[in-house]
Write a structure and sequence with these properties.
Elements: H1 2-18, E1 41-58, E2 66-69, E3 71-84, E4 87-91, E5 94-103, H2 110-113, E6 114-131, E7 138-151, E8 172-185, E9 190-200, E10 219-233
Antiparallel strand pairs: 1-3, 1-10, 2-5, 3-4, 3-5, 4-6, 5-6, 6-7, 7-8, 8-9, 9-10
Length: 234
């Protein structure tokens, strides 16, 4: 997580420093793309990174399920609708690859304890973007909204469960999201690094066929938690 946050601020700093004293932060900056935000609709694309996690709740207290996180990759499109001067409606459909490694307590055999949860998500967020007043070639913003996610690797239709090393999740889930970013107006395009938290609303786990399963019987709910760092180009 620290590496992703450092990468976010590095992405902000590089174009800023490259413009020199008369660029983005100079006393008399050269204004780029002065009328860009007056467009009713504009489009773009994003590339980025993600870290996904799970939040578990249990029926009975005991040893927690341990989740080790990996850094995944994002790519997608951006459609931006201007509602008023400081408010936009944004749709960001994207493809997200990620993996979480779970270690279940109470097992002596590694094959039983470990589960690799590889996920390929199609993510559909609808966000409100609240922009501050533009200063030179910089405009910070906040964004918040809801999203719906399709997990292409959920195993939701599989009859096999953890007794056959098959971890199952629901195919669709709903989330709410909140984040912030910075619009940087460069000479030929707008570049926007952003960081956003994603909080799952639904319980995603599909219990094992055995109601006394040592893997799922003690889990009340399992919800997604994620951090996205995206670099958007308009």
């Amino acid at each position: 997580m620290k590496k992703l946050v450092a990468l976010f601020f590095l992405a902000f700093a590089i174009p800023t420093c490259a413009q020199g004293p008369t660029g983005t932060f100079g006393n008399d900056p050269i204004i780029h793309l002065e009328n860009f935000d007056k467009q009713r609709v504009h489009w773009g694309y994003f590339l980025g990174f993600n870290i996904y996690d799970f939040k578990f709740e249990y029926k009975n207290p005991g040893a927690d399920i341990q989740a080790s996180r990996t850094t995944g990759f994002n790519v997608g499109l951006v459609g931006d609708l201007r509602l008023m001067e400081y408010l936009d409606l944004r749709f960001e459909p994207g493809l997200y690859y990620t993996q979480r490694n779970l270690v279940f307590p109470g097992f002596t055999e590694e094959l039983d304890a470990n589960r690799e949860v590889r996920s390929t998500y199609i993510h559909f967020p609808l966000l409100l973007k609240f922009s501050a007043k533009r200063t030179g070639n910089v405009r910070p913003y906040l964004e918040a909204g809801v999203s719906r996610t399709l997990n292409l690797a959920s195993n939701s239709k599989s009859k096999e469960d953890n007794t056959e090393q098959r971890f199952r999740m629901k195919q669709w889930t709903n989330n709410y999201e909140i984040g912030f970013g910075i619009d940087l107006y460069l000479e030929y395009f707008k570049f926007s690094p952003s960081i956003r938290g994603v909080f799952g609303i639904d319980n995603e786990i599909i219990p094992d066929n055995d109601p006394n399963s040592p893997w799922t019987s003690n889990i009340t709910s399992m919800k997604t938690r994620a951090v996205f760092i995206n670099f958007t180009f308009h």
